[in-house]
Amino acid sequence: MTPELRTERLEFLPYRPEHEDVFVALLRDEEVCRWMGQDLVPEPQIREVFRAILTDIYPQGRFDVWGLWLAGRYIGHAEVKPTGNVEGHELVTALAPGYWGQGLGGEAVRGLLRHAAENLGLTEAYGMVGAENTASLAMCRRLGFRHLRDVVGDDGSVTKLLVIPTAAGGSEGASRTAVEATAQTPAPGAGPTDGPAPAGARGGEGLAGAPGATGSAGTTGGEDLAGVVGGEGPAGVKIGEGLAGVAGGEGPAGAATGQGLAGAATGEGLAGAASAGEVG
């Protein structure tokens, strides 16, 4: 059962039926979709995805999925899920554009790391970030992610596969202390602390999604909003189980969808034919 989580400013709350409209609005936002590496998905399909979270993902305990709330306002989405890109779990976060640049993306990731360590018993976690998403890459470096390899999609797009020890999440108090210390004494060459992105950085805040297409590493997608139903992604490559395919059928590009929440109805999940979490 997905638990409620809290950080200094954020509440991670399992979705309820009354959250459907805000979920749809987030995943219909063009900027959010852009930095999560997916095209805009028709609203009816996103609604199917949301209902799959309530009727499939939660009841079967497939993986943990939350809405992110700040002072009673819905501001984003988060997941921790098994991945097909590597043997392990990926983190996924997506924030509404109005909340970028406030350090909330990093705070959300630290909350997921604590959950992964304390509740799931994981020692490390992974993230996927598009090579062009310089804002998210900068955030990941500040948090302590390490680059493992590049994954090249069939369309030539490059996604960075990153790893981080879950101990980097620390306790809530320790996280606040670390953030305050970093703000006062940034590490050499680390750039700005976990707040506004460096000048000229592109991208949104969050861990959004590894392409579900088979990349140069020969991997396929794992469980996420993009494939709770398994099948083929837009490029004709397999995507794994996740929020993108819980319902199956045909994706926007006419490709058969896989198992996932974004495909509980469609083939594409939050990460778009992506099954990871792009920190963006």
Per DSSP E runs of 2 or more residues, the count of β-strands stands at 10
Category by helix and strand content: alpha+beta
Strand order of the largest sheet: 1-2-3-4-5
Query: What top-tier CATH class fits best?
Result: Alpha Beta
Tally of individual helices: 6
At CATH level 3, the topology is: Aminopeptidase
Structural Rg: 17 Å
- CATH architecture level-2 label: 3-Layer(aba) Sandwich
User: How big a fraction of the residues is strand?
Assistant: 15-25%
What general outline do the C-alpha atoms trace? Answer: globular
Secondary-structure element string: EEHHHEEEHEHEEHEE
Mean pLDDT: 71
Percent range for helical residues? 25-40%
Oligomeric assembly:
single chain
Distance between the termini: 27 Å
Number of domains: 1
For the report, how would you describe the main beta sheet?
5 strands, antiparallel
Any idea what the CATH superfamily is called? Gcn5-related N-acetyltransferase (GNAT)
Low-confidence stretches: 171-202, 209-242, 244-280
